[in-house]
Amino acid sequence: MAKKNKQKQENKNNDLNKLNIIDILKHDKPFEIKDDGLTVKVLDSATLKKFKLANNKPRKKDGLENEKNTNDNIVEVSDVKKTYLSGNVATDVLKGISFEIKKGEIAILYGKSGSGKSTLLNIISALDRPTSGKVIVNNINLPYLSDSKQTLFRRDNISFIFQNYNLLQNLNSYDNVETGAYLQKNKAKHLNIKKLFKDFDLEECMYKYPSQMSGGQQQRVSILRAIAKNSDILVADEPTGALDEKTGQIVLKILQEINRDYGTTIIIVSHDPDVALLADKVIYLELGQIKEVVTQKRKWLTEEIKQNNFEEIATT
């Protein structure tokens, strides 16, 4: 009898795995299919409602909304799960993530495409909400924030470096960098923009427009914009992904200098093992789970590497 029931269940699972998305949506009872480590679930209406509320609305106050970071941590993530919805189909992307990042650390979220690292970065920087779990960043408990307070949190606490630069095409480099400085409302934290261009060997680009610069120059200007904001935390999603190796080394050297000179906590998403060597902490992600967290002595890129690469790029 047990053998017969087992065979019946296996046949049912095989039938479900053959379904296309239209067939799946016709089912009114919850079930799940596992494929390549992702869990795809069809939810009943009550569970679907709970997931939608968790993903799109601030968490109701429960006495924990004012919880702060502990010790020297600036980021604390505890048992974070993220489930994306498409109709009544749910896909688990993060599956109980927990880690800490200390003030002033360079941390890498490392993993292959589909590991959940960009989703995790978006949650840490209040661009997205966790479905469940705790996320405290710079003494702010993020899941409890309204949409407008999320925006204020990003303005006051996070600087962004984008892989595709996101420079304003109608502004020159100086004005693009100044837009970052404008977002810093604390006058005591304002930086001298012309000095930034000089310090990072970009004086020749100061009044050029994005269309007049190479990809590497645009990326470095976008980094200056993030520096000019002078936030406590800087996040970068694959900052060297669109760059050649030499220009990528320059960008990474600049990030190390930001960390050294300003004490900025830097969180980088990457799948490059060479980038991982430059961090104090590497958080290895695989299929939405943490495989390992490694604290290490970072490798410093030398000033000679940076200068030699500048000179070589200038002559090509």
From TrEMBL:
GO CC term, one of those recorded: membrane protein complex
ABC transporter domain ranges (all copies): 75-312
Keyword annotations of the record: ATP-binding, Hydrolase, Nucleotide-binding, Transport
Pfam families: ABC_tran
EC annotation from Swiss-Prot or TrEMBL: 3.6.3.-
Molecular function in Gene Ontology: ATP binding; ATP hydrolysis activity; transmembrane transporter activity
Enzyme class: hydrolase
Family, as annotated: Belongs to the ABC transporter superfamily.
Protein name as it appears in the record: ABC transporter ATP-binding protein
Organism of origin: Metamycoplasma alkalescens
Species classification: Bacteria, Bacillati, Mycoplasmatota, Mycoplasmoidales, Metamycoplasmataceae
